[in-house]
Each structure stands twice: as C-alpha cells, then as structure tokens.
Amino acid sequence: MNVFELKQGTAPLLVCMPHIGTDIAHELRALYVPRALAVEDTDWHLATLYNFLDGLGASVLRATTSRYVIDLNRPPDDAPMYPGASNTELCPTRFFTGDPLYQTGCEPSMPQRLARRSQYWQPYHQALAQELQRLQALHGQVLLWDAHSIRSAIPWLFEGRLPDLNIGTADGKAADARVTQAVAQACQDAPGISSVVNGRFKGGYTTRHYGNPAGGIHAVQLEKCQSLYMQEVAPYAYDAALAAQFQPVLHAMVRAGLEAVQALPR
Asked: Could you give the number of structural domains in the chain?
C-alpha cells in the first residue's frame, strides 16, 4: 500500500492533502466498527476540486491512507492541536461525532501507534520536507498550501456553523502577512461566501511545523466547508454545479498566495 502520491511541479507551490486518503489496510479493518469503513470524515473530492493545480505548476502531495488509521496533520508526539477543545489524535479513536471508531478493546496500543507512525506518518512527512527543500532551492520563497474540507456543522468539534472558508496561518506565525492578506482578499468579495483568518482552525501540524516565513516557507491551511461543493451527508456526492460556482474563488485564492510569495524578496 502506497502511503502517498507526489506529483512534482515547477512553481514555488506545494499543495498537500493529508486527509484525502480512504485506504484502511486489510489487517486493520476488523478492528473498526462497521460504520468506520465508510470513512465519513474524509476530506472528500479535493483532487477534483483542485484540478486547476497543474495549470499553476504546483507540486501536489496526496495521502492515500485514511485519517482513521493515522492523522498526518497531527504532531508525532500526539500533543493536542487545540487545548481545551475536542481534538482527534495521531491515531484517532473517535468519529467527528465523538462516537468510538473501534470495536470495544480494539483501540491501538502504544506500540501499534508507534508502528503506524513509522509506517505512514514518517514517509509522508519525509516526502513533504524533501519537496519543500527542492522547491526552495529553485525559488527561495515557497508557498505550502495545506488543503482540507469539513462538514459545516459538527457539534463535537465546534459550536454552530463554521464560516465557509477558514484560513489558518498559526496566528500569523506560519506565513508572511502579505501572503495571508492576499489570500484573504481573494475571497473577501465572493458573493454568499463567508471567510475568517485564524478563527476556529488556525492550522494543524503541517502549517505550524513547516511554516517559517523568515526562512522562506509560507504555510497556509484552508479548511473549507464541504457545503460549498458537495453533499455533506452520505453518499457524500460531488455537486458539479455548486463546485463550478466555488472553484473560481478557490483558484483565485491559491493564485493570489502564489503571486504574493513570488513577489517577496528572494
């Protein structure tokens, strides 16, 4: 089983999709409750939604393994991303609804968690770091775009309904302010689409760990509501009509971030 797929581009842009994977290894499947095998908390259809990336010359890193096996956007020591709020772990044990993922007594032990970290997490992040290094050697300044999507209302994780577009830069630590401003401005006037910068979702491990604007890496997480482009309930179908309305906004945001990075002094 491949842990990830990497397509190398030529522009100073790496887009990663850590939660797009749906694979659960055969030997693990019996450990989960049957509901888990439908992997409902996947970041659905991102490859289709971001189908404009080739035209921007982007590198794209896509996970193939489900976040139910391991969450590639969590720190290796499993420290909570949002202290005081509900969090999913490095090896999640609950759905986004808070219900148990595993059959009783089948949650992964510490040795099993460490084995998953070695098998899945480390190769993915090694590839991510190496691709950033390659792009930075070519361009000096690089945009790391961490692509996500989520249901618009999940009471276990947050109150009420999320803004449609949640831009996260670790409270400004992960990207130059000019990059953040360009991305935010690109969606500000989109009709009927709400947005926020560093609200409930400020960026996960990828944004916080790799974002280093002084060192030439500008990391931006975009957590978007799935209601913008798909059905939020099973079978989680892609809605081409909705997506066609939203895609130009998404394209404009990524392009604005890329152009802002390219305008920075090398």
From this structure: 1
